[in-house]
Design goal:
Number of strands: 37
Largest sheet: 5 strands, antiparallel
Number of helices: 2
Shape: globular
Strand order of the largest sheet: 1-35-34-31-32
Structural class: mainly beta
Radius of gyration: 22 Å
Length: about 425
Amino acid sequence: MKGISFLCLALAVFAPLDAAGGDLSGQVTRAGSGEAVASAQVLIRGTSFSTTTDANGQYLFADLPNGSYGLTCAAPGLRGSSSGAVWIGDETVRDFSLSAPEDIGTIQGVATCAANPCAGVVLFARQGGSTKGIGLSAANGGFDIVGLAAGDYDLRAEAYGYLPASVSMTLPAPATDGGTSVVNQNINLAAGGGPYSLSGVAALSDNPLDRTGATVRCNGQIPTLSTLSQQGGSYRLDGLPAGPLSFSAFKTGYRSDTQIDVMITGDRNLNFVLVFEDTDPGDPSYRISGRVQLEIPDGGSPVDADGSHVSIWSDDEKYRRQTSTNADGEYSISGIPAGSYLAGASREGFTTQLQEAFELTDNRTFNFSLPFDPDYQWGPGADGNPSGCSCNQCHPEFGGLLLLLLAWAIRQWIR
């Protein structure tokens, strides 16, 4: 990989869609040792589908409705992990590597749904909007979120079919050096009520006169919940449960638009944009995925792993996609047609890393490590300190231009 200065990139996340069913499988291991993790939980967010790993750390979901979903994996005593959008096709493999905790704080308790212990509740330990730890409730409702530093947290709980819940709490510092700190905190999610409706517009990028006929679907529902857009692209999808759901809009000749973790607590609005597709929708597509690590100097303040950007673009610059990393620094971009590509990862204040040109004929894994850039020129904050102002915040008109400049610079670099 080669490094160049940070550039802001435009965000456009789309995924292909199909009507058939598929299998999702994988293995859960310990980071570092590669040891299999038995009895780990794997949840497909936005659905009621969950399972546990066997003695070899293997898991399997069979005959799932095709679509893009978020996944969460957790095991007692290890750091939980959540993915962004993962495309589940005919046979999809998604492995998880769970890390041992570095900090010694733990939040544990029982999650209940309408006052009854329930499995499959995703729990987030958050500080200032950033997720510091993730857990999943077991069949008895028990959960733990490990590896937390002392401090104030908002504990948020989300589950399919229920309204989200949150509670504020404090995790104290250990009483003795080398000790641990544990807080017991139960949390209850209220019944979701409903059913609810989703409405909005499924727009078409080439803006044809006829904007009808796009399908809007709630992924993972049995029986299928879907509707067709009407004149002007407007749609209404009824019969939705509460909780975090995944939605896709698709139409023949256009690249579908999927949005995951859409929280439904009542009737709401959601719009889609379908990009005109000049390739054969029957052509195979592939995925790139991996992790972005941030190299923090000794003594430097920690930086959240989420929010780094990973981009892929074709050698002829006609195809571009981008996504952001999750709380564990992981990313995934699905639905990429075969071809010649370049890829890169970037984050403000760090040196961008680039993956040299490659042929994509299968799913690929690319991990990036971004060194801290001591020469980066931050915008002044209110007190004269670095503010962390991003390019899009300060100069939004530069986003598309910088993406073109980045593609041009890489082409010159590798020639």
